Amino acid sequence: MAKVAIKVRDLRTSYGAHVVHEHLDMDVYEGEIVGVIGPSGSGKSVLLRAIVGLKKPDHGTVEVYGEDVTGLEGDELREVQTLWGIMFQDGALFSNLTVRENVMAPMREHTDLSKPFMRQLADQKIRMAGLETAAGDKFPSDLSGGMRKRAALARALALDPPILFLDEPTAGLDPITAGAFDKLVRDLQQSLSLTVFLVTHDLDTLAATCDRIVALGDKRVVAAGTMDELRAMDQPWLQEYFGGPRGRAAAAGVK
Ligand SMILES: Nc1ncnc2c1ncn2[C@@H]1O[C@H](COP(=O)(O)OP(=O)(O)OP(=O)(O)O)[C@@H](O)[C@H]1O
After folding, report:
1. Gene3D superfamilies this protein is in (predicted)?
2. Cβ(40) to ligand 1 under 6 A?
């Protein structure tokens, strides 16, 4: 059985009186793409933020490759941050920097590499993400939505992390662009042996890319398994999600 890359145990998070997660347990195995689904507001993005140290849990632990990373701060957090790249929902690119400078930003923060070498590496990541090298000179505002996502993916790959977090990577893309992005994620995961934590609402993305799906609800994980296993579960939200016309269409095209 594959090794556990990310292990979350008894997680509790909250904002004031609003409890987002309670007694949440989750495992992500090395080398898999796990899709995290659940109703709007069920805490998918907050879970991602809690794992990467951007949201401090009230309780519980997060281990990455067996190391407890819960509540790390300062240099300790900076050190473990090289284990993962994150692509946020809106891309979160620095609007005043070119694409190349955006991709170089994590390198500047975490390495002592020379500037020419960083440029070379950044251009390599830009091409890996399916953009022309010339896109490196452009500012995020000069790019289409699909290109911005690719630029954000290039930045997430900047430090060659073994783990990738993607928050709604295909949101706002037309179906063809979204399909191409799904394929890119799958291809990169395979060629780089990445472990991918992917938050999505997109049934086509789940069908095309994910090895396993974890569903959130009632502040915790309510189901985990393959798409077929989840579709067969007697859980009202899952039934509605997979059983609707969009769910049936995605299932018909399952990989
Ligand atoms: N910074 C914040 N301050 C207060 N409440 C927050 C904050 N961030 C998230 N929340 C709350 O936490 C809950 C979970 O939010 P989260 O963004 O994780 O949901 P989600 O499952 O990703 O939803 P969606 O599918 O709509 O993106 C929501 O009720 C949200 O309002």
Report:
1. P-loop containing nucleotide triphosphate hydrolases (3.40.50.300)
2. yes
ipTM over 0.85: yes
User: Edge-to-edge, what's the strand order for the sheet holding 59-64?
Assistant: 18-29, 4-15, 59-64, 67-68
Q: What is the largest CA-CA distance in the chain?
A: 56
Which structural domain, as residue segments, surrounds residue 155?
4-252
* pLDDT above 90: residue 96: yes
Pair of tokens at residue 62: 């997060």
User: From CA 159, how far away is CA 82, in angstroms rounded?
Assistant: 7
DSSP code at position 114: -
Give residue 3's pLDDT band: very low, low, confident or very high (50, 70, 90).
Answer: very high
| Number of other residues whose CB lies within 10 A of the CB of residue 77 | 14
Question: Which of ligand 1's atoms lies nearest the C-alpha of 38?
Answer: 21
Q: What is the domain count for the chain?
A: 1
Separation of CA 243 and ligand 1 centre (Å):
25
Residue 15 CA, ligand 1 centroid: distance in Å: 9
Taking the CA atoms of 113, 114, 120 and 126 in sequence, report the sign of the dihedral they define. Answer: positive
The closest alpha carbon to 222, from 211, 232, 237, 207, belongs to 237
Cβ of residue 17 lying under 6 Å from some atom of ligand 1: no
The residues near 58 (Cβ < 8 Å, ≥ 6 apart) are 12, 13, 14
* CB contact set of 218 (below 8 Å; sequence gap of 6+): none
